[in-house]
Specification:
alpha/beta, 5 helices, globular, binds manganese (II) ion
Length: 128
C-alpha cells in the first residue's frame, strides 16, 4: 500500500526540502499551508503520517493536533511535530498534546525518512 503523508508547512522552501528527502520513498505526498487547510486535508485524505509545522497561519500546529486527537478516526495517525529549536516550550507542549514524535527545524534530511520508516514499521507491528 502506498502510504499517504501530509506535509503541513507554511514556508515553501521547507516544504520543498521535506519533499526532496521523501521523494525516493514512493509515498503519496500531500501538502497544506495553514492550520485550517491541514484539518480539511487530513479529514478528506486520512494520511498515515502528518508532518506538522507548529508555527502556522490561521490555526497553529498544536491546535490542529489537539483537534485531530479528539476524533477517533485519527487515533492511529502518526504526527511528527516540527519546530525551530529556539522555540522554547514548544517541545513540552507537543509532548503534552500527545504528538508522537518531535523534530527540530531545520529538518535533518537523513533523519526524517528514517523516523518515518521506523514509525511505519512500528505501527505495522502494533496493528498487524
Ligand atoms: Mn511555520
Amino acid at each position: 500500500m502506498k502510504e499517504k503523508i501530509l506535509i503541513v508547512e507554511d514556508n515553501p522552501l521547507h516544504t520543498r526540502l521535506i519533499k526532496m528527502t521523501l521523494r525516493a520513498k514512493g509515498y503519496t505526498l500531500l501538502k497544506a499551508t495553514d492550520g485550517e487547510e491541514a484539518l480539511d486535508m487530513a479529514t478528506r485524505e486520512r494520511p498515515s503520517i502528518i508532518i506538522m509545522d507548529i508555527r502556522l497561519p490561521k490555526m497553529n500546529g498544536l491546535e490542529v493536533t489537539m483537534k485531530l486527537r479528539k476524533n477517533p478516526a485519527f487515533s492511529h495517525t502518526l504526527i511528527i511535530g516540527v519546530t525551530a529549536y529556539a522555540m522554547k516550550g514548544d517541545r513540552e507542549r507537543i509532548i503534552e498534546s500527545g504528538r508522537d514524535v518531535y523534530l527540530s527545524k531545520p529538518i535533518n534530511t537523513r533523519e526524517l525518512p528514517e523516523v518515518i520508516t521506523e514509525m511505519l514499521s512500528q505501527r505495522q507491528k502494533d496493528n498487524p
